[in-house]
Design brief:
Blueprint (H helix, E strand, L loop, with lengths): L4 H9 L4 E5 H5 L5 E7 L4 E4 L9 E7 L10 E6 L2 E6 L2 E8 L1 H5 L9 H4 L3 E5 L3 H12 L4 E5 L23 H12 L4 E5 L8 H7 L5 E5 L4 H13 L3 E7 L5 E7 L8 H6 L6 H4 L21 H19 L17 E5 L4 H4 L30 H5 L11
Parallel strand pairs: 1-3, 1-7, 4-5, 8-9, 8-11, 9-10, 11-12
Antiparallel strand pairs: 2-3, 2-4, 5-6, 6-7, 12-13, 13-14
Helix pairs in contact: 5-6, 5-11
């Protein structure tokens, strides 16, 4: 049976109205304004958690015990069992849910929420790469983020960034913080609107927990990754870098886990290490060189950036769960410490460099990086070179 659009609208409007509300909110009998969204076509009142109430609109108020519901509009009345809800003076049903368990229910058996909630991520760069990494890790249940980026979100960012037009003009760290809290209102977010070299040491001291923290480098150059890996070693934290080659036709992922006998970024890639000259010649997406259009970033479409970033995110999840014996790694056992991924093998896009790839979407599994001459088969930073140094203001 087919209905005209107007008939469908009528049937939807006749639908019984329902309130979606968390158990915590439903049991909160304090007088207050209720914020959220009402969807006319479904009849759903979605009451937002207190942590993100500013994201919603005013729906109505919580009235005192035995108060008469308002004749027009939406309200809640306090009862012995919690809140009861009314629309235009008539009672309406509600569905209470456990907020945290409901959000992460589909991760069950793969990523345990009680484990992921204790994990911490220091995100170095909140652009197209960092915003996707943060959003996906928040969806995995990571409980705490330290976001570091000095930049403002602008219109030219929107075709690749996870934030939207409503955030243009805001600091990237603040815009991304808002998005993370909309995924998980319980997430803890600390922001620093500057470069890593200038972050106060006490901010990192308070945030980092040995064995539970991962630094993710999403900045625009190798020097930033070298510095970030140095700081991660200082805090006995793992490090992962996600970088890109020209126009994002290819990218690279590097990780370092302290205590595993691995070369750090400086040993392996900071000055070339044992990799080929071709890899040394690569640039990250946001290069410091201006192109012919005068832009201070390297062009690359979102689909290409996201494909490579997603592989980095999978590795990040594996690293965060490395001590969880019940967890089955997705990539960590198969990908080497240094991985190159291509989006295309077409020389019209990547130039002569693409000849190192046999086919599009290739992911390397055999590249090996080693220690440089200064380290002599052991990372000198892990061996104690950092002890006594001070972090912040470029002192490492």
């Amino acid at each position: 049976m087919k209905f005209a659009t107007q008939e469908l609208d009528f049937l939807i409007k006749e639908k019984k109205k329902t309130v979606f509300i968390s158990e915590k909110q439903q049991k909160n009998t304090a007088p207050r304004v209720l914020y959220g969204r009402y969807f006319d076509r479904t009849g759903i009142y979605n009451i937002f958690p207190e942590e993100i109430k500013e994201e919603g609109e005013v729906l109505g108020e919580v009235l005192s015990v035995n108060a008469k519901p308002v004749k027009e509009g939406f309200c809640a009345v306090v009862t012995e069992e919690g809140l009861a809800f009314f629309c235009d003076g008539q009672p309406i049903t509600y569905e209470a849910y456990s907020l945290y368990q409901s959000i992460f229910s589909r991760n069950k058996g793969i990523l345990e929420t009680n484990v992921m909630a204790e994990k911490k991520v220091v995100l170095l760069g909140c652009g197209s790469v960092g915003s996707l990494a943060a959003m996906e890790l928040a969806r995995c249940g990571v409980g705490s983020f330290l976001l570091i980026d000095p930049d403002i979100l602008e219109y030219h960012n929107l075709c690749r960034h996870q934030c939207g037009i409503e955030d243009v003009g805001n600091l990237k760290v603040d815009a991304l913080s808002r998005k993370l809290k909309c995924i998980n209102p319980a997430v803890k977010v600390v922001t620093f609107d500057g470069i890593l070299q200038n972050i106060p040491k006490d901010m990192l001291d308070k945030f980092c927990v040995e064995g539970a923290t991962l630094f993710i480098g999403c900045a625009d150059n190798r020097a930033a990754d070298v510095y970030a890996n140095r700081i991660s070693i200082y805090y006995q934290a793992a490090f992962l870098s996600i970088g890109f080659w020209e126009r994002a036709y290819a990218g690279e992922i590097f990780y370092h886990i302290p205590g595993k006998g691995m070369p750090c970024y400086s040993c392996a890639l900071g000055d070339g290490g044992n990799i080929s000259e071709r890899a040394q010649a690569s640039h990250h997406v946001y290069s410091n060189q201006e192109d012919t259009e005068g832009l201070k970033f390297e062009p690359g479409i979102s689909a290409d950036i996201n494909y490579i970033t997603t592989i980095g995110i999978k590795l990040a999840i594996d690293i965060l769960n490395a001590s969880n014996q019940e967890y089955i790694p997705r990539l960590l056992r198969d990908l080497k410490q240094y991985t190159i991924i291509c989006n295309t093998s077409n020389p019209q896009i990547g130039g002569e460099m693409v000849e190192i790839f046999s086919y599009p979407l290739q992911v390397s599994t055999s590249l090996v990086v080693g220690f440089n001459d200064k380290c002599k088969n052991a990372c000198r930073l892990e061996e104690g070179e950092l002890h006594g140094n001070h972090i912040g203001a470029g002192n490492i």
